[in-house]
Amino acid sequence: MNWTHERIKTLMLAVQIALVAVVILGIILFLWSKFWIIGAILTLVPFLYLLVGLVSIPEEQRHLTQVFGAYYRTLGPGLHVIYRGVEKIRGFVSVWEQRYPLFEGESTKIDCRDGSIVPKKAFAFVECREEDDPDAPRKMIFEVKDVKGAATALVESVLISHLNRKEVKEALEERGGCDIFDKMDLSVQEDLEKGLEKWGLKLNRIIVGDFELDKRVIAAREAILEQEAAELAAKYEKQARAQAIMGSFLEMVALGRGISVDEFTAVVREDTGLQEKILEISADLLERRMALDRGALVDIRTANGNPLLDLVALWHKMSSGNGGPKLKPQPRTGKEGKGPGDSEGQET
User: Fold this and answer.
1) What does DSSP assign to residue 314?
2) CA nearest 268: which of 193, 343, 327, 215?
3) Does the reported pTM lie above 0.70?
4) Are the beta carbons of 67 and 12 closer than 8 angstroms?
5) CB 3.0-4.6 Å disulfide test: which of 59, 217, 255, 293 passes with 115?
6) Residue 123: beta bridge partners?
7) Same domain, 79 and 110
8) Using one digit for the tens of pLDDT, what is the confidence trace for 2-43?
9) What is the phi-psi region of residue 104: left when phi exceeds 0, alpha when psi lies from -120 to 50, beta otherwise?
10) What is the CATH number of the domain that holds 194?
């Protein structure tokens, strides 16, 4: 016989009427003094039967009952009566958020576009859709044999498909506290939500604590990191040398003119043309310094664009006052003598 929900409701109504009828009969017999013992028994039996069937349900749980294997009702938090012998609790669900572990057991290797990764400490956070669908608790118990296993398998398959389209570097960016479900395509999110909805579940987020990399991927990433570190070190070294050459150049020019470096720097700040010329000479000197460090000693002897000649021309320009600021040399002190043509010698 196919027990539909309407037939079950009719049967349970008959059970309730029968209990009431027994109580009424017991009361009548109790009042009839000749059969008062039988009446007392008939009156107490239904109450004892209901008392045995009392169940208390906590706030976060929903208990589902069945009659002859078919769903009957969902019991919320509070005190309820189960009609023993006819009605049976099939199971219960929690309406609070649940954490379903992913990829348990053996390590699951996922192939990305440029390597393989193994997810570690992965979880799917789901909850019952009771607020949106009052029938959700029934779906979690009666629509699927193992709702946790089914939901876990579905989320794992979608997650693997999502990571298959990623590079290892991109996948690593989605580990830790990142919600991978939010990173998925909108169409994938909708399909996954529909798949879980038929079991009364709602997916809140997917978290993967870390990814274990394949040995070949680790070796490749280490090589890339070493190359990036070498390039960064070379960049900083070049910047340090450029600063050193610029400082030495400014100090050399200032000493050649008999002024302090601060005074020379103040003059340079006021003359944009002088700034460009100094930067040009410094850049050339830096390139030649790097060439010398590599052993290319002939580089300093090139005929064209010798920075030493440019430096002489710059000194002459500064001392003559044509097209640039004129710097007055400080008076010399000490026992040094000033020979003929000494001033011109300083300018050249």
Assistant:
1) H
2) 327
3) no
4) yes
5) 217
6) 101, 207
7) no
8) 678 788 888 899 999 999 999 999 888 888 777 888 888 988
9) beta
10) 3.30.479.30
Write the CB contacts of 224 (distance below 8 Å, at least 6 apart in sequence). Answer: none
Residue 338, domain member (yes or no): no
Q: Based on the fold, state whether residues 125 and 196 are members of the same structural domain.
A: yes
How far from chain centre, in Å, is Cα 200?
Answer: 27
The domain boundary, picked from 176, 201, 217, lies at 217
Residues 208 and 247 in one domain: no
Total structural domains in the chain?
A: 3
Question: How buried is 170 (Cβ within 10 angstroms: 0-12 exposed, 13-18 middle, 19+ buried)?
Answer: middle
Tokens 């579940």 label which residue? 201
In a domain, 336, yes or no: no
> 5-31 vs 36-52: helix axis angle to the nearest 10?
150
Question: Which residues of the chain fall below pLDDT 70?
Answer: 1-2, 215-222, 241-247, 249-250, 254, 256-257, 261, 275, 282-283, 285-348
Considering 172, 197, 217, which residue would you say is the last residue of a domain? 217
